[in-house]
Structures are given as structure tokens and as C-alpha cells.
Amino acid sequence: MSHHTPVPDSGWILEGYLDGESNLVITPIARFPFQIGRRAKGGLRLHNNGVSSHHAELIHDNDQLWVRDLDSTNGTYVNRRRVSGQHVIRDGDVLHFATSEFIVRLVREEDDGETTVYRSVDNLPQRMGGHELVARMLSQRAVDVHFQPLVDLADRHSIIGWEALGRGTLDDLPRSPVAILALAEQVGRAQELSELLRVRAMDLAIGFGPSPTLFLNCHPIELGSDRLVESMAELRAQSPDANLVLEIHEEAVTDVQGLRTLVVALSALGIRTAYDDFGAGQARLLELVEATPAFVKFDKAWVCGLDQPTSKQHRLVKALVKMVLDCGITPVCEGIETAAQAQACVDVGFKLAQGFYFGRPGPASGLNRN
Hints:
Structural class: alpha/beta
CATH topology of the largest domain: TIM Barrel
Radius of gyration: 23 Å
CATH superfamily of the largest domain: EAL domain
Oligomer: single chain
Order of helices and strands: EEEEEEEEEEEEHEEHHEHEHEHEHEHEE
């Protein structure tokens, strides 16, 4: 197809595998703009946590077909290159929305009246090469870790610890931890990647001093597995004096009794626990605190309206924070971006906080540890 010949505005489709589906799905692009995302309207909805609510859209300008990234968190890629703004796409191009992969096709009506889809879906590189790419990432230890500070709100925002946030470094894969973990999960190796990110964090934290406090993450698939405790025991043996905290995402907890057992096992290793991204309200909080973690990290969604003392949000958060404190647990507020939000955290009783206002994630070599 000549680049100077206007492309048709009809007959386009997306071919790919939706999450949880084993069969190829062909989605006609019925009209433009055509939106892609977890909450896409009149387009393609993707049930993939790495995909933003309104991730990208396909548009046609009477001359070319374009994909436009809608400021997505984990990126839009054309032929494995991340794009910003909008980018021309052509018949046969491979599109990634985070880790969800598709080929864009132009379907034509041939002389015999039959509809033909050109090229083979075997060209989907992620379906064909995902295992190889993840295996290469693991064997080459092609990951990095950035660290974001947690601060003490009562002590002039002094740094009390660091959350370790993974990054991918393999050229053929995204850097986002959400994206690489989602791909590893698709090929059955999420637990290995999650462990590698924790090991890498410990390696990089050697220069943090004799007993750094590190908040480490785990993948939901690790919960309930004996291997999770074993891997944490190995880290403890590697760094006997480190203050380790394992973060457990609140939404991943389906077995509170199993969670209680995990907390006890980690406590025996001198490792504390934190519930991450808490955001489900009082009933869920009462259920989770029965296992008595050391920390509860309130999701950044709670920050909205927190700096308005008369708002319902302010009163609700204050009551929840008091409940956590009464249980002997330290409440942490995430997502703080302004001085007003930081002061509001103090007003409702938060002890610790985290967010861009206090420091962005950065490599270990460039951190200010004061």
C-alpha cells in the first residue's frame, strides 16, 4: 500500500487474544474514533489491570489511520515502540495496550465476494514469544528497582523507610512493573519475577546503611504458597539486620485465615506486613485488621477532598484512621502531592505518608537518604 494513497476508512479490524480467552478474537472497528480501555465506550473493553480506563483510541483523518495514546499509565506501543500522542498505523502493525496485544488488519472484499483477512495471526509476537522474552528477562536478571521514601509526619518529614518499586530493563519489554508482571503471569512465571524484584531490591539497598527499612511487594499469585515464606526467609538470611516489610495488596486477600497464618510466619522471621492500597471501607478494614499487620497503607483515592475538614471524606478517613490506631496498627497515607494534603494527613491522624510531595521513586545511587 503506497503511503501516498489514502487508506480506506472502513474494513479495519483488531485481532488478538483477550485476557482469559484461549481463542482468537476479531473485533471490527465499526466507527471512528474507536476507544480502547477498561471502560471504553463504543470500542474495545479490555479486562486487564495494566490497561487504563481510557487507554487509547484509533482515529481516521480521511488520509491515514492513527493510534492516539490517552495518557495511559502503562503505555501504547506500535511494533514494540512506545508512542506518545498519536502515531500512524498501517495494515499488519502490532499494537500493545500495556500487555494486551493485537494486530491491526484491513479486510477487503475480493472479486469472488469472500472476505479475506491478510497475514497470519501467528505473527503475534507476544503469544509466540512471550515465554522466550520472560525467560530471557529472568535469566539475564534484566530488572531494576527504584525506591520511594516513606516519611514520619510528626518528625519534620524525616525518612523512615523506602518502598522498592520494580522496573523492567529488557529492550523488548516495557519498563512498567504492572506490565512485566502481567506478561509474566500470562506465561506462568509471575512468582519468579516477583521474587527476582525483591532480591534485586535487597542487592541495591546494601548502600542504605546497616539496618534499612524496606517495603517489598509481592504478587497476588504468591499468597497461599509456601514458597512466599521460603523466599522471605532467604532474604532474611541474606540481611539479618534489615527491617523488612512485605506489602500485601488488599484486593488480593480472599482468605483472611490464610492471611493470619502468613502474618504469623513472617513475624517469626522478624518481617512485618502492610496492607497496600486499602480502599474498600470500614467492613473490609475490620476483616483485615484481625490478622494485625504492622501497617495499613490507605489508597491515594482517599486523598481527594481530605484537605477539606468539613467534607464527608475527611470525617470518614478520620474515623478509619482512629480504628487502625486503636488496633495498634500504623496508618500510612499514599499519593500525597501537595503541602495541603500533607497537613490534612496530620489532621486526621496519619503517622506516615508517601507520595511525590516527599519524593519520587528513584535509583538507589541517586537517593537523598536524609
